[in-house]
Design brief:
The chain is mainly alpha-helical and 305 residues long. The chain has helices spanning 2-31, 39-56, 68-98, 106-126, 150-172, 174-184, 186-191, 196-222, 229-244, 249-270, 275-289, and strands spanning 131-132, 140-143, 146-149, 224-225. The chain has a single domain (2-289), classed as ABC transporter involved in vitamin B12 uptake, BtuC. It starts with a helix and ends in a 16-residue tail after the last helix.
């Protein structure tokens, strides 16, 4: 029983990473009806830039690297910058040319192109092998016989606080109301005086920031980074988003925690090879029973937030 409780605890801690990335996916698909495939790459950029800065002082050439807090901050900054580049050359470009970028598949395909470009730029710069972040974060405490890593607990708390703050912004602030109006209908929002061209970049800024936070939490907990670190986390985050319900921020939270729990328990009972079967099998069953996800609305398309 103690071992089972330990795995459940570990699953929830792991789920905090999936939660943050799943919410980044939820923002773009909930407000812009756009599945942003670059999110896994932006998550990866955070870890790789932070590692390069801490190990080699990149891009300043500081011998012995720079301090890890500054390195992590640089990683988050790089993630936000990369996300804004994607907005400029995918979503905004299509809106300027066609009026409503959400009605075209080109932004989705171009975001997939940016995913490949970002990954290959990192491969060219730093190689394909895994790297270990120089700073080790190890601090545990015990509840009975259950071991809880302090970085993992902090990750869970930070991810929930960040998402709760984002939900508050969407529900109560003028920017949040503007974003929800754009989610309903961008053309009508423009007629109501909302400057869509100024508000939409905030979605990409928020999603880049969420990916940056998730990347930092991953580095703090697991230390190892690579050019492909975003692939598995990104696919699990998509599963979490769909499981919780498209467009539902709190559904993304529940989905992320459930995916982390499924992963930990499947490893415990059946071995690591069964993780994908457990996660995607559960997702398939939920979709068959409730196509909108656990907490999603019945409406598919715009207006989900």
């Amino acid at each position: 029983m103690t071992l089972l409780l330990q795995q459940i605890t570990t699953g929830f801690m792991l789920g905090s990473i999936y939660v943050t990335v799943a919410v980044a996916f939820t923002l773009t698909i909930g407000i812009l009806n756009f599945l942003n495939f670059t999110i896994p790459a932006i998550f990866m950029i955070t870890g790789m830039i932070a590692w390069a800065a801490a190990a080699y002082g990149f891009p300043f050439g500081v011998e012995g690297g720079i301090s890890w807090p500054l390195a992590l901050f640089m990683g988050v900054t790089a993630a936000v910058f990369a996300s804004l580049i994607v907005e400029r050359f995918t979503f905004r470009y299509l809106r300027i040319r066609h009026g409503d970028a959400t009605e075209h598949a080109i932004p989705l395909v171009s975001s997939l192109g940016f995913l490949i470009i970002f990954e290959n730029l990192i491969l060219i710069a730093f190689g394909s092998e895994a790297h270990s972040f120089p700073e080790k974060f190890r601090s545990d405490f015990y509840i009975g016989e259950i071991i809880i890593g302090l970085p993992q607990l902090a990750s869970l708390a930070i991810s929930l606080v960040v998402v709760a703050f984002l939900s508050w912004v969407l529900k109560t602030t003028s920017i949040g109301r503007a974003l929800r109006a754009i989610a309903e209908n961008p053309d009508t929002a423009s007629l109501l005086g909302i400057e869509v061209q100024r508000i939409v970049p905030l979605v990409f800024l928020f999603s880049g920031l969420l990916c940056g936070v998730a990347g930092v939490l991953f580095v703090v907990n697991y230390s190892d980074v690579s050019a492909f670190m975003g692939d598995e986390v990104g696919t699990k985050a998509i599963a979490a988003m769909v499981l919780g319900g498209l467009g539902s921020i709190w559904g993304a939270i529940a989905g992320g925690l459930i995916v982390g729990l499924l992963e930990a328990l499947s490893i415990h009972f059946f071995g690591a090879d069964t993780v994908n079967v457990a996660v995607w099998g559960t997702l398939l069953i939920v979709i068959i029973i409730k196509p909108s996800g656990l907490f999603g609305a019945s409406r598919i398309g715009k207006g989900k937030l």
